[in-house]
UniProtKB/TrEMBL annotation:
It holds the Pfam family V-ATPase_C. GO terms for cellular component: lysosomal membrane; vacuolar proton-transporting V-type ATPase, V1 domain. InterPro entries: ATPase_V1-cplx_csu, Vac_ATP_synth_c_sf. V-ATPase is a heteromultimeric enzyme made up of two complexes: the ATP-hydrolytic V1 complex and the proton translocation V0 complex. The V1 complex consists of three catalytic AB heterodimers that form a heterohexamer, three peripheral stalks each consisting of EG heterodimers, one central rotor including subunits D and F, and the regulatory subunits C and H. The proton translocation complex V0 consists of the proton transport subunit a, a ring of proteolipid subunits c9c'', rotary subunit d, subunits e and f, and two accessory subunits. The keyword Disulfide bond does not apply. This is V-type proton ATPase subunit C. The keyword Ion transport applies. Keywords: Hydrogen ion transport, Ion transport, Transport. Subunit of the V1 complex of vacuolar(H+)-ATPase (V-ATPase), a multisubunit enzyme composed of a peripheral complex (V1) that hydrolyzes ATP and a membrane integral complex (V0) that translocates protons. V-ATPase is responsible for acidifying and maintaining the pH of intracellular compartments and in some cell types, is targeted to the plasma membrane, where it is responsible for acidifying the extracellular environment. Subunit C is necessary for the assembly of the catalytic sector of the enzyme and is likely to have a specific function in its catalytic activity. Belongs to the V-ATPase C subunit family. It comes from Rhipicephalus microplus (Cattle tick).
């Protein structure tokens, strides 16, 4: 089967045109640490002071071990922080997400002092229209993914055969080249495919070593120096040229 595939192999252009545009849209993650994940699904309108000319609400990520410090310090990190304005919105295994309301004019100073105390201010602006658009975009991408999944699977089935054949072709070329390098010219060797059962693999190796030990007597005489350019370790060197081939892409332990 492999021999037939090699004889009929013709390298073709990639199935996907080189000039095809790549999707550049970025969908914020909804998983992960509060330090990096999207906050859109964690907050609501009631958590913010909206429409005020002077006041704004910040979202701050606080390590759980620093909750006590946050409650005792946040009102003093700058002037013009609204007392008792902080509330815990959400928490994961390591951090909590807090709100705090303060005047616009002290936001930069507040952020600076937060960094000094290992509190992380997340950049977030509550905009219902933007949040709705983001959720709609995520829903659209999920729908597109479902539609394209079947097409992708069919494409993979068609192209895997060609890719695997090309890979075996490369293996055959390498087998030929390294055989010439080891045994010289004229060419007098034959490539073979062997698939032993796991329990007989060791015995097969012993038999092959006995049959072909005369091809390289240096193995019997002691350690073999690595042949320049072949990049083979001592444990993979045999009197015959040998390569492993994985035939089960889901199980790397199945080899020829």
């Amino acid at each position: 089967m492999v021999e037939c595939a090699l004889r009929s192999f013709v390298l073709s252009q990639p199935a996907l045109p080189p000039g095809a545009p790549l999707r550049s849209s970025f969908v914020p993650g909804v998983r992960g640490s509060l330090l990096v994940r999207s906050l859109a699904d964690l907050v609501c309108k009631d958590h913010f002071v909206l429409g005020s000319e002077y006041l704004t609400t910040l979202l701050v990520v606080v390590p759980k071990i620093l909750y006590k410090d946050w409650y005792s310090k946040y009102e003093k990190l700058s002037d013009m922080v609204v007392p008792y304005s902080s509330q815990l919105v959400f928490e994961d295994n390591e951090h909590g997400l807090f709100t705090v309301t303060l005047f616009y004019k002290v936001v930069d100073e507040f952020k600076l002092h937060c960094r000094e105390n290992k509190f992380v201010v997340r950049e977030f602006v509550y905009d219902e229209n933007a949040l709705l658009a983001g959720k709609n975009e995520i829903a659209k991408l999920e729908s597109d993914k479902k539609k394209q999944y079947g097409l992708l699977i069919r494409w993979l089935k068609v192209n895997f055969s060609e890719a695997f054949t090309a890979w075996i072709h490369v293996k055959a070329l390498r087998l030929f080249v390294e055989s010439v390098l080891r045994y010289g010219l004229p060419v007098n060797f034959q490539g073979m495919l062997l698939q032993p059962q796991k329990k007989t693999a060791k015995r097969l190796r012993e038999v092959l070593n006995q049959l072909y030990s005369h091809l390289d007597t240096s193995i019997a005489q002691g350690p073999v120096d690595e042949i320049p350019g072949l990049n083979m370790g001592q444990q993979e060197y045999y009197p015959y040229v040998y390569f492993k081939i994985c035939i089960d892409m889901a199980d790397t332990h199945v080899r020829l």
